[in-house]
Write a structure and sequence with these properties.
The structure is a homodimer. Chain A is α+β, with helices and mostly antiparallel strands. The first copy, chain A, has a domain of 104 residues: Roll (Thiol Ester Dehydrase, Chain A), CATH 3.10.129.10. In chain A, 22% of the residues lie in helices and 36% in strands. The first copy, chain A, has 4 helices and 8 strands. In chain A, the strands form 2 sheets. A 5-stranded antiparallel sheet of chain A has the order 2-4-5-6-3, covered by helices on one side. The longest helix of chain A is centred in the middle third of the chain and has 14 residues. The radius of gyration of chain A is 17 Å and the shape is globular. The two termini of chain A are 29 Å apart. At the A-B interface, helix 1, helix 2, helix 4, strand 3 and strand 8 of A face helix 1, helix 2, helix 4, strand 3 and strand 8 of B.
């Protein structure tokens, strides 16, 4: 059984990094459409998407936001983090089959408030930047090493 | 069959509003965990969550971000919108069973670039603000009135 662990404020330093990768599959786009309610045809309808500036179906921009939030919750700082805010700039579309990698880097540590600022850069498999942003979080107050909950089983029809 | 329509730049005005509501169910939190990969136990494990500052399971903050993105994609400006950026501040936790309403209001229209700035305020069923943010989008270039794609069927085990 794999584990999740976190970094407390004292365990973090400026320049600390973490990465998180996901390949965007058909099922992911359909699942994100279902959970968000965003059934925009540029995500779901190949024929419609072919007539747009993108020329093909693209993933929801906020799916990349979801990956950033997962990277923060799972990797750095990890469980116990309080998510305060996030900025996002969507720079290039993510298309089905792309593998995106979220790169996190700690750029500020506020000792008094225990706030952590994290620069987020998301690249695709061609190392092109698809999204950037800045996260603000409150560091976990206690060290945690916990069993990793199973990923919920979801089937997409 | 219901339809989706959009607002082109010329059809929008400062102060224009739209709303989008969702009730956060158990299945939504599990689906968001699956699609993002964020299996943090504060979202999935009631016993673990009881020992946190929240006292109970909470929805992923970025699920609220997903609702904002859906409101923009579906309601205002709607299909054909290019999502450029989003800021988010997470102000209060969203718990299972909460009904959240995204309120959008157009606050700036950049005639030259066709950029639209939208203030986003998300409230719960007690009218408490759970998240705020600002979206920047490029307006749809053509008027669309299209068939609303079916929401993908997803089953959560």
């Amino acid at each position: 059984m794999s584990q999740l662990s976190n970094f407390t404020f004292e365990e973090m330093h400026i320049g600390q990094t973490a990465r998180y990768s996901k390949t965007v599959e058909e099922a992911d786009v359909r699942m994100f459409a279902a959970v968000s309610g965003d059934v925009n045809p540029v995500h779901l309808d190949a024929e419609f998407a072919a007539g747009t500036r993108f020329g093909e179906r693209i993933a929801h921009g906020m799916l990349t936001g979801a990956y950033i939030s997962a990277a923060i919750a799972i990797e750095l700082p990890g469980p116990g983090t309080i998510y305060l805010g996030q900025s996002l700039k969507f720079r290039l579309p993510v298309t089905l089959g792309d593998t995106v990698t979220v790169n996190l880097e700690i750029t500020e540590l506020d000792e008094r408030k225990k706030f952590v600022t994290i620069e987020c850069t998301v690249i695709n498999q061609e190392e092109k930047v698809v999204a950037t942003g800045t996260a603000q979080v409150m560091a976990p107050t206690e060290k945690l090493v916990i069993e990793r909950p199973a990923t919920p089983e979801v089937s997409v029809n």
